[in-house]
Design brief:
Layout lengths: L14 E7 L6 H8 L5 E7 L5 H7 L3 E5 L5 H14 L4 E4 L11 H9 L5 E5 L10 H15 L14 E4 H4 L11 H11 L4 E5 L11 H28 L1
Parallel strand pairs: 1-2, 1-4, 2-3, 5-7
Antiparallel strand pairs: 4-6, 5-6
Helix pairs in contact: 5-8
């Protein structure tokens, strides 16, 4: 039977990996090369890096989208979503370009979407028996996650993981407003509000240093305040519509 005479053809969903990057020249080439084994296309969003991040990513086989200046994590994620839409993705998987996430775990993260079990999958650092998350990070993530889970039927263990998979229902259904790390919470809140099925799978994560990172602490406090703002805003909207 020829290709044209087949009554139907099973279409394989197009999976795109999008990697937000800032100054990840030393790691991004390996991340791209390994991610390519599991997806149809790899896109790197170079968020204004002043090193060779973009060049290394391109040489490794990624489509590179460059911000001329550093706009922050939120803007990089927005570009990841836009790239998924414009390149015809059926499933979008995001992971960090600094080597913290293991690209070989991509099949595990996208599996629930492929099986029709979820619309959004979080790669959780806290579901495995062992993890290397520094204590101060674990504490900060725990506070943020508690604030997001509080009073909700939908609960997760890791609201701040950047290793995620999204179906079209999520990455095509709403605009993103947050500019910083709080975009992770914004996505979860909007997905939850629209009835998306959220699931978690265990992942590993590598941290180069376990010393206290005061920049990370500052980011954590900022995100915690953003969680309160987002939750209160949505609560007021529900009350106004009731």
């Amino acid at each position: 039977m020829t290709q044209q005479s087949r009554p139907y053809q099973i279409l394989k969903p197009k999976v795109i990996a999008a990697i937000p990057c800032y100054r990840t020249e030393l790691y991004v080439g390996d991340v791209v090369s390994r991610a390519k084994k599991y997806v149809d296309q790899v896109i790197v969003v170079d968020d204004g890096s002043d090193d060779g991040t973009g060049e290394v990513a391109r040489e490794a086989g990624a489509l590179v989208i460059r911000h001329e200046k550093n706009r922050g994590y939120g803007e990089a994620i927005k570009s990841c979503f836009e790239a998924a839409r414009s390149n015809g993705a059926d499933i979008l998987v995001t992971l960090d370009g600094d080597g913290q996430h293991n690209p070989d775990e991509i099949p595990r993260v996208i599996s629930p979407i492929l099986k029709g079990e979820a619309n959004l999958v979080i790669g959780s650092r806290f579901l495995a028996n062992e993890h290397s998350v520094p204590r101060y990070r674990k504490f900060g993530i725990g506070v943020i996650t508690f604030l997001w889970n509080f009073g909700s039927k939908v609960k997760v263990s890791d609201t701040q993981s950047g290793f995620r998979a999204y179906s079209k229902k999520v990455f095509e259904s709403f605009p993103l407003r947050e500019q910083g790390m709080a975009v992770s919470i914004e996505i979860l809140e909007k997905a939850r509000k629209r009835g998306a099925v959220i699931k978690e799978v265990p992942i590993s994560c590598v941290y180069v240093s376990s010393t206290i990172n005061f920049k990370a602490i500052k980011h954590g406090l900022s995100v915690a305040l953003s969680v309160i703002k987002i939750r209160l805003k949505n609560s007021l909207v529900r009350n106004d519509n009731s």
